[in-house]
Amino acid sequence: MSGSMAFLLWIKGPMFNIALAIFAIGLFARFAEIFLLGRKPNYAEPRAGEWLPGFKTMFTRSIADPGTFQRASFNVVVGWVWHLGFLIALLLFVPHVELMKGLFGIVWPALPNPVVDLITAITLIALVATLVHRLTHPVKQRISTFDDYLVWTVVFLVVLTGYLAYHRLVNPYPIALGMHILMAEIFLIILPFTKLTHIFTAFIARWYNGAAFGRKGVAS
Amino acid sequence: MSELTLERGLAAFRAEIDAPIAAFFSSCVHCGICAQSCPFYLETGDPKYTPILKLEPLRLVWEGEFTLWGRIKRTLGLQQKVTDEMLAEWEELLYDSCSMCGRCSLVCPVGNDLAYMIRKSREGMVQAGHAPEGLIAASVRAIQTGSPMGLQWKTLAVQIKHVEDSTSLTVPVDKTGVDYLVLLSSMEIINFPEYLEAITKIFDHAGVTWTLSTQCFEATNAGIQIGNKDIAAQLVERVVAAAEKLKVPNVISPECGHAYTAIRWEGPNLIGRPYPFRVFHIIEVLDTLRASGRLQTEGMESDRLSLHDPCNLARKSGVIQQQRNLMALVADNFVDLKEHGKFQWCCGAGGGVSSNERAEPLKLAAFKRKKAQIEEVAPERMVTMCATCRTQLEEGMEEFNMNIPVVGLTEMIADHLVEKEARS
Questions:
Q1: pLDDT tens digits, B316-375
Q2: For chain A, which end, N or C, has fewer CB atoms within 10 Å of the first or last residue's CB respectively?
Q3: CATH for A197
Q4: Which ipTM value was assigned to this complex?
Q5: SS in 3 state form for B28-62?
Q6: How far away is chain A from the Cα of B279, in angstroms, using its nearest Cα?
Q7: Is there a domain that residue A57 lies in?
Q8: Could you say which of A35, A134, A139 has the minimum Cβ distance to residue B35?
């Protein structure tokens, strides 16, 4: 067996399991860190319940209010483009659908490859735009940390290696594919310990936000 | 009080960290959109006023002590520590440049309730000895005299006399078993005595039974503004004691935004039990009277009027439609500011900023956002329902040579009541 094939098999086998284990344990720890803290009882007479407004905000907060959209349109639009692009490439690319089928036994329709290809290219451009914005906008410059650049690099490399592998731009192919899977694994490994946790915790945060405002009679 | 130290501050930060705080910090992606909702950032252009950055001390405590990775970093000596110097630097960010208006809490894409986190951060700042002088003085006065401005009952008694003379009505004091205990704010008593006259007329007109209490007339809570639960709880207990003594089923918070959120939402949690009475903002009471047909008005204001929603009343308490219903009763040329209701812009003076003399330039800078909003719809007068907002609007517009008077909504309603003799 060639070295490149052995690399791919290791990445798809033991390394995948390691990554998955760290991801699962890390994420479990993060959830425990959040929920074990709990909340103090609230004795103020509520105007409305918490659950429904909480759930509503979990979804509605994805859309910026018109004023914010106007003031931060670049942030909002580019953010939407790359998040959607990333999700489409992750969930609707034929080999990824096959992977999900293998892992979870559930299948859904994929998009034609050229469509995903175009979306991936747009995602890469949008990601570069977010980096430029982070490096140049005074607010983002001021609040950015090592974590922000690490996460950007990993996310960008996950998409870039996928794009390179699909276009056979790196040879031999097992190395190209192996690199892509490895990057995805690194993504999984760092997820629970970086701002990537927002993939899960943003919905918890939104719930708390919606619940707190909803209790006071404000749709947040 | 024993000495305020960094250690005490850190302990207070720790004690404030709960599940929402952990979820919020876990979710921040440093997108910076909160800055676009902050009048202090927008009007100064200084990125240090980005709301999430103001929370860095609390975030560091959370990361270093409440997360697995933070603990590992701390063990390896890689975790940044919160120092006394840091807190000294952050004092301006957490107090002078934040009115806790909560607008950032409503626009953060991941749902972080930043105003909630600021409120909690201030608890740590007080314990670490890094609260502004102006707020410390107001808190001490509130505890010692019952009023953050040091105002005493005798001053109010003089005003009551004036009201009684000019209305020929009685201002009830220490009456038991009435429907409402009315609270006031010192700023209102000093700057806007017309409020007391207005409610005296309105309640007489609507047949509402009410009273003031010599035991407690102050509704504001300096303890909440500075961020000290003990002081805040003590001030709330005074209201509860007065209400219990007079056996009132309802307490009315005056035309003051923060007094309302303090007594309505934080109060029961500060004292650790539900109230034996209900709390309403005066605007809620007036709108209920309107809806039940107990407010009979005549004549309409014909000039172009617009409305400033106090943050604490609208965005942070859901009182948004009530003031518009009341405006419709007496104004036929009303125009809303473009971003209003829950998305209104802060006047810049709330959250203790107006009690913090050092913050004066920032307070005026933040007002420019409101100024631009007002200029956009060009009203002839502004109407509001918070004494702090009203003072800030008046001072701000005077500073910028805008000739737009500001009136309180309660007072405007009182001006349109049908005279008793005319009703039958």
A1: 999 999 999 999 999 999 999 999 999 999 999 999 999 999 999 999 999 999 999 999
A2: N
A3: 1.20.950.20
A4: 0.96
A5: CCCCCHHHHHCHHHHHHCCHHHCHHHHCHHHHHHH
A6: 9
A7: no
A8: A139
